[in-house]
Amino acid sequence: MEEHLLLLGCSHKSAPLHVREKFSISPQGVPALYNEMKRCPDILESVVLNTCNRVELYSVIRPGFCFEGLAKFFCAVNNVNQALFKEHSFEQRGKNVIMHAFSVASGIESQMVGETEIFGQFKEAYMTAKQHTAVGPTLNRIFQKSFQAAKLTRTHTDISRGQISIGNVATALAERIFAKLSKVRILIIGGGEAAEKTLQALYSRGAQDINITNRTFEKAQELARKFHARAIGYEDYPYLLDQFDVIISSISTEKPILEPEIFYPVMKKRKDAPMFLIDLGVPRNFDAGVADVPDVYLYNINDLANIANENLKSRQFEIEKCKALLAERVDHLWNTIVQKGAEQEDFSEDDIKKEDLAPAPAN
Predict the structure, then answer these.
(1) pLDDT digits over 41-98, tens only?
(2) Active-site position among 52, 66, 75, 322
(3) Which of the two ends of the chain, N or C, has the fewest CB atoms closer than 10 A to its terminal CB?
(4) Where does 24-94 have alpha helices with state H?
(5) Domain 5-161+313-357 bears CATH identifier 3.40.190.10
(6) CATH topology assigned to domain 166-308
(7) Is 26 helix (H, G, I), strand (E, B) or coil?
């Protein structure tokens, strides 16, 4: 089984931001990847985890199909430079794949250590794979046990103390700059999970002048009603940029939606009043050159991670505690898979929700 269970991936630990965004898979690209994997007789099972800081392919393969073949296949399907991917990717096999999956789901492999959003992304990746009939008995078992492991670490350690999330950290950054958010004019670009959690964090911290725009105006209206914000048409917001002190963007895009040229006339209208841009996107939403515009201050996902991890040394004990908890369960699952084979179980989305709410097993 050691040679059949493989993980191929790229994350913040193996590649800088400007490289990671080249490997990011678009929402439309994930179904296409699953369709191609179905046509490959050497890939028996697969789950694709695609987040802002990692792209990972968990696979069960036929004997003789190796990492090189899997990487070549992945790069060809996603139009990725194979040499660049080889330089910045990592590989795991056998029991190490399980340990990695448990660690990712638990948040200790995240760029913002202990963040909670990865758990939902991990579940969503599994459900998407099931919808594409890509999951078999081995990955089914590993991912289910990963959910339990994540729940265990949250219950028996303080690794996620403070509810670390990208929305909370972005809001904390805004508070560092302005102290009080009640009079700060804020624009959110995007309507996905990151945008919603950022809206929630801003609203809970007293922000009162919140505006939101999204490609789908109905989604922007829905979020505006929920958080007492104002919805702005996606075609209109570029003409209103000078009105905002903080712009936070998390839209899905293959190239920047805002270039430096847009901000020069905008900043003239603001008459030396600074503007703060927080880019939550991978690929990035703001062109890096925007930071060169006078009085514009640009922060990206790496900057937020540095803020979130400022007290990382004090939490090192919790990280080691998590690893110890996980290692024991990894050994047990690996021995089960090797000795008995993974039992075929069919978990529905309702089963996963129930599992999330169930009490953690005793330590």
Answers:
(1) 999 999 999 998 999 999 999 988 888 888 999 999 989 999 999 999 999 999 999 9
(2) 52
(3) C
(4) 29-39, 67-78, 82-88
(5) no
(6) Rossmann fold (3.40.50)
(7) coil
